[in-house]
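seq as requested:
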Amino acid sequence: MSTIPACPQCTMENTYPDSEHYVCADCGHEWPMVAAATEDDADAAVVKDVNGTVLAGGDSVVLIKDLKVKGSSITLKMGTKVKSIRLVGGDHEVDCRMDAGNFMLKACYLKKS
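struct tokens:
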């Protein structure tokens, strides 16, 4: 398995190192390698779901309440199962892909399934 991280913009894994940056071959996004190293340190922080269960990258989770998407008329419904989550640093710890699009979610609204 490659140690090169997936693209933070499109989440595709078709990335490569170029000098001091990583480059995504799919969307063309570039980001510094130094920032990627600090993101790995942020992943070391423990992320827990609503029940206190520790979440890990690749887990499947379920939404515990309806969530309105800011700036859109989309509502993510309670009970929706989300597969293959990715943990990231920041206020919204979980990055996921759903039928309605790509979303960043807070772990306090998720339950591990």
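The chain is about 10% helix and 30% strand.
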